[in-house]
Please model this.
Amino acid sequence: MRYLPLTDTDRSEMLAVIGAPDVDALFADVPEEARLTGPIHGLPMHASEMAVEKHMRKLSKKNLAAADAAFFIGAGAYRHHVPASVDHIIQRGEFLTAYTPYQPEIAQGTLQMLFEFQSQVARLYGCHVANASMYDGSTACWEAVAMAGRVTRKKRAVLSGALHPHYAEVVKTMAKFTEDEIAHAKLALQPQPDNDGLISRIDDQTSCVVVQYPDILGRLPDLRQIADAAHEKGALLIVVNTEPVALGAITSPGELGADIVVGEGQSIGVGLQFGGPYLGLFAVTNQKHVRQMPGRLCGETVDAEGKRGFVLTLSTREQHIRREKATSNICTNSGLCALAFSVHMTLLGEKGLRQLAMENHRLACIAADRLAKMPGVSVLNESFFNEFTIRIGRDAREVVRTLADKGVLAGVSLGRLFPDADGLADGLLVAVTETTSEEDIETLASTLEEVLS
Amino acid sequence: MRYLPLTDTDRSEMLAVIGAPDVDALFADVPEEARLTGPIHGLPMHASEMAVEKHMRKLSKKNLAAADAAFFIGAGAYRHHVPASVDHIIQRGEFLTAYTPYQPEIAQGTLQMLFEFQSQVARLYGCHVANASMYDGSTACWEAVAMAGRVTRKKRAVLSGALHPHYAEVVKTMAKFTEDEIAHAKLALQPQPDNDGLISRIDDQTSCVVVQYPDILGRLPDLRQIADAAHEKGALLIVVNTEPVALGAITSPGELGADIVVGEGQSIGVGLQFGGPYLGLFAVTNQKHVRQMPGRLCGETVDAEGKRGFVLTLSTREQHIRREKATSNICTNSGLCALAFSVHMTLLGEKGLRQLAMENHRLACIAADRLAKMPGVSVLNESFFNEFTIRIGRDAREVVRTLADKGVLAGVSLGRLFPDADGLADGLLVAVTETTSEEDIETLASTLEEVLS
Amino acid sequence: LEEPLLFEIGQTDTTGVDLPEPAGGPNRLGGMDRSEAIGLPGLSEPETVRHYTRLSRQNYGIDLGFFPLGSCTMKHNPRLNEKVARMPGFADVHPLQPVDTVRGALEVVNELANWLIDLTGMHGVAMSPKAGAHGELCGILCIRAALEARGDARKVVLVPESAHGTNPATAAFAGYEVEDIPATSEGRVDLEALKARLGPDVAAVMITNPNTCGLFERDMKAISDAVHAAGGFVYCDGANFNAIVGKVRPGDLGVDAMHINLHKTFSTPHGGGGPGSGPVVLSEALAPFGPLPYVVRTDDGSVQLVEEENAAEFRHTEAFGRMTAFHGQMGMFTRALTYILSHGADGLKQVAEDAVLNANYLLRSLDDLLDAPFGPSGPCMHEALFSDEGFAQDISTLDLAKGLIDEGYHPMTMYFPLVVHGAMLIEPTETESKAALDQFVSALRSVAERARAGDESLKTAPHYAPRRRLDETLAARKPVLAYQEPVAPSGQPTMSEQGGR
Amino acid sequence: LEEPLLFEIGQTDTTGVDLPEPAGGPNRLGGMDRSEAIGLPGLSEPETVRHYTRLSRQNYGIDLGFFPLGSCTMKHNPRLNEKVARMPGFADVHPLQPVDTVRGALEVVNELANWLIDLTGMHGVAMSPKAGAHGELCGILCIRAALEARGDARKVVLVPESAHGTNPATAAFAGYEVEDIPATSEGRVDLEALKARLGPDVAAVMITNPNTCGLFERDMKAISDAVHAAGGFVYCDGANFNAIVGKVRPGDLGVDAMHINLHKTFSTPHGGGGPGSGPVVLSEALAPFGPLPYVVRTDDGSVQLVEEENAAEFRHTEAFGRMTAFHGQMGMFTRALTYILSHGADGLKQVAEDAVLNANYLLRSLDDLLDAPFGPSGPCMHEALFSDEGFAQDISTLDLAKGLIDEGYHPMTMYFPLVVHGAMLIEPTETESKAALDQFVSALRSVAERARAGDESLKTAPHYAPRRRLDETLAARKPVLAYQEPVAPSGQPTMSEQGGR
Model:
């Protein structure tokens, strides 16, 4: 076994030191009848690196990689170009094989990176403080709802109908058990988000209003109005963002009145990976709320010689200290993804992020204009960043599958996202990023035309 | 430009410090008429990482990668499985982006690695001392011939006809200029190497005899007889090995009487890479010859506190000290490939190397037996390690091309290796390694049968 | 050379990418265009690589040396796993691609699920939980859903005091009251006390087995039987499954739900704090309630991924909901499966044996000098527990740990479990050689001698690390959680102020 | 922790791979079966990764900090280049595959060749030389072949005394007598002296331009004209091409042959000493003699790879032979082409400008404190040259260099070129930021002040490196070039003795 350094000689010598006749003697506390006598029957034995690599490559090749298709899928996970140096850095053994930085004297690399990450996220979101990351956007969204409950001591959350349905599902699942009430509007295919409808649901019992920006249809709600309405009723505004690149082009939620901003950070540095691991971002605009935040926080301090250094801090909120009184049961963050995000964001810088955002928007506009010209196709959105909704006059689920057979991954049908909803079946969500070429757009348009005709 | 940190502000500030009006003033010594005024006409401008990656990927996909074919090509470069950890280690910035270790106090990583590498190569070759690597096997071969001339003060080299023809061509090219005489036997398709013919060419003027082991047809000459004959005439025996994995199964050249052993180290750790960079190995059995060796040597010493350390040594042989009196003009070694070799060899260890060698041999025997059973095909070799010659009764160059169209890279035709030789055209060199599956062997046999029938 | 903060060396007009300048002109941003600066510093690529390479060298990782953190299982991370995870068919596929274009990815999920079910002797597995604690939550929610399905509103979850902090936090998050289960003097759950507490209000017992004292819960089967008899469920914290993988199946001991930390047992990288991955295996009783997406073995023995779309087809309509947006930690699944296939059924058994052998070797190489409170309780499993008994009055476990840093080692887990005073929990894992253990023992013995002798210099250790002891109190009292520009000297431009209102 | 030698920790029966045990039985090895042990130690994979990771941390690299080695051009190595070189279509193809299966690889060679020809203004390029010195040899052999083809048996090659050591060694290796060309007091070739020496016995002049004093050879065109008039050829050492790429084409200055160090100008990694790659561009006069494989631009403007097979088709039958077994350093070609495409024609020009700007900035930031012998000769190109003039009597350039190590820097090139006493050659390259240069200047100034003041502690520097000064004399006097087992204490088994006789 290539990963096991002990030789049989070592094992004998060690058993002698321990005073055990054989290794099974060390398992004496396992009831004999439960002890397995040999390798589990029917499972394969160990294999060489070459054999395992071949097997996994075979499985990998059974998938259509995005790079090999004309690719337009988004809906909460976006394909962006990640610079090669990002992947190089996250594979440095000192980052990859380190543990949670509980011994700060020999973990300043991870800690300084987390401090920089928190600072980057806070600025991107227009917030005061960000935590050191969470599992993903959907779980961060629920943590925000739970936190709003702690802050306001109320148990009713109002969810926008244009919140990502998986996010809403996670919130509702958790709320079932915490016995929070969730008021969730229905989504309708309108050119503009239904702010008025949302606001009408806010009442004095409302802990928070959850709005996605850009929303699941790609539209850009004006958050100020909702923020004012929420604050008036003593509720917090939670803004969910699933495409951080957008914030290079549009005003940040924090600047528009959000109290908690959460989102998915996958777009920057992380890659698609069939859905995970991703990167939950979590930030607050009000410093007073910091001690109600879930997840790890890294803070600045000094060492015994007065040198600046960083430590995990405010851990009295956390489960390993507070146990059942913790703000969350969360224990890990998404450290390596946070590193990837931070490295990529450093490479971009403000200048690169703005350029990237505008390049995404430019290509999305080209795509929207091209598709709008097609017979039988209409573009729903009045506003969008890099993703928009088209209506194609027939069930989009079927069309998406047909296009996939032709090597075009055309987007996400609203029927797949909202299987139980009425009136959405002909909607198709189309995402365009800097990785989309104008040739890809032409391929989408011509193949779609072929399929629809 | 993502690789250029200076901003325009920096540039202006720096020009002010220098006292130059603009950057062109710094090129004042370039004659004005030769100065280019703008980017060279007709060449493309800078491109994003994504655009360059796409372009290069397109070119990459125009090649048939060995992993996607049934693969049997050898003839001096062999496809072996390289563990993923090898590539991880050579990409550590501290190894990848270091320079030649001229400042040993901050280059002990490279130096200790080279010392270990030299020790590994010396043991593998059965030699006393190995150098820190050279460009590749073919150039190491010429360096050995040149060194034999310095040691013996004679200028006639006898080359076996079964030496890799590219190696022989490199030796002959260099000898033209140094005015050495090269006696090169013709290759004939015999089941056994023509030792007697080779020995008959050795005379008192002979500086060295150059024999490949296993030879270009895959045969295993008994070196002892040649060693004795050479030494009797005061000539050195140079043994060339192009497949180091073989030495896990067969006795090393040093143990059989070689004076200089050179070879290609690519099989261990380096990969195919369309021919380069590869790894020249160079070792001698006689300690007295060390000061006539070409290339870098790393030696053990102590530091001012008495701690063990390593330095480049005996550099009085080298060009940067001796200039026109140097033993070679060589300046770089193949350091990163040497590291890859050393890491892979460490993972193998003696046990793994022997297992690897015997697995290669086992599969090669299966392939030889399978092909020998085919009508119209005969196996030439009486002995072989992982490569052997078959005769297929018609021009093999054409057959190889036809098989390639069918996704089978069947081996190397002798007609391609020896374009001017008679009587070799129906020979095909077939290499089999641990990466070859029995299914691949069956594919080769059945496709070959189809083409030949 | 100290590495400055990114915010001290980067500039908002520097970038390490080559993208076109925006053309300007009209856009479709609906008037939400950003007008203010964000304040994000950039670096060119050479500066970026250097910044993070230098930072990395302030870190300790398993690649650098022994990392004996008990309960954290810092074992070798094979590079093959990293390579496989980056194959385009895994790394470059979107979770919402049509199913026909991701058959290979689903096979990975299914193959891994199959192994997890077989290795644990369970019935089904929820693959989506994002980490161990998320898995715990998933398991407890399954239990609650199962109880609710039979109209049983139990309110209490019993947790041993030595449990991971996540256990009580999870139970509380799921709406339960948490009560302690006492331990016996030998460091195991007190079976009789447990039995006495069981009743119609107890929804579940959460047991860590092997437990956090490094001991196997001998009475596990009896505990399960008692809990089941009282109408409750048994949750097993699988954080320490690495000690028993291939040696005993939790399903055979009556466990109803257990999460598996893929990063511990199956060596996906810890990455400085994540990402984790915590699939939850479930018994037949709980399987119907597992969240979507879910993997189940069907009657013909094949393993199937169940999502909202096909829940009815696989009769999985009682799923309690969804725990995360997509399928779970796919990138960790590929790594874990690669690891499992590399070891095979024989190798995984050897993993457990070598891990336990290494831990007992450490225990017996140290217990003459360090107090091992449960040393007489029999062999330990994958980790060895010591207390600070015998240290000089003013030397603490913390001091010893910081002293170990000066010897070139990452310290062990300190002050956990809480049941032992000044606890030190040492987990060697199976990927350490005997030579590495011997070297560590000798270093630890030397520090322990100093701790017993009251060597004052330990109190200011570490002396040779990138930083001396850091002031954690200051950090918590005056939290500085994001970079703020220093007040600019007059005449100098400042970088944009920190964003926000 | 010191890292032991592999031979001290490895065992011949340990392996980090999983391969089947040989079955034994008959074989076809023709009786050459190995019977003796080899003595190769092995390590498991975790131990291997740790051994080399630890070793790596004893190294300094460009990723860690400024690396101002003059004439060595230590610039940033983009990771994109590494990624591209590993694409299966480049990394996993055999040099002897049928040509139709490697069209993309040949296109890489051709695209790169095309750029090299255009950037240098030359006629053809021999791609196969494996490194700079190999390229020099190739160029000189082309010259000799061209002379022989016209029956001209010239015997002498002229080389400036400031040349790289490879220049005279190459000329000697190619069978020439080497004679020095003197330099003027301002550090350039003495044109009049050169002209006086030219004659029918002079085969070639080898000039480094920009030269090793960091200066551009103003009279290059006049030199070329004079050499050509005397019937000789001009070889240009292209090691410093990075200073002028995109700014001036050597072909326009009359150069007949020039090698290009891909690792210097086009940033393929140095890797601790190689591999290099040294394609040689050739003038119309020399192009017919370029070795195979060779790349030529045909009349229709396309670029073609010429091998033995198609030499006649491309009228390239006068090739002087073959310099290496296969096509050259393909893995470096992919990296260099990636680098070139990233910069483009505009970016490469910027590379030269920023490299020269950085060097002049250093020169002028230091020349008040360090003697710059050719400072008055005008702007330097890509590197700045200083002497030890003004140091205290007993402090040498070596001492200053070792003192810089203690400041966290790799030293500059020392004692080269030989024409300056105690030479220090500093090359910043274009990938250093102004901030990095300012920090270096301040460190170097502090060490230089100490050197002038005669600070004795410099003589024992470095004090803070992994090693203090190493005894190079001992290493050369009693060479220990391979590991030898210590004599075993009685009763202990030894590892197999070192192989061989």
Q: What stands out?
A: The CA atoms of residues 299 and 314 of chain C lie 11 Å apart. The radius of gyration of chain C is 26 Å.
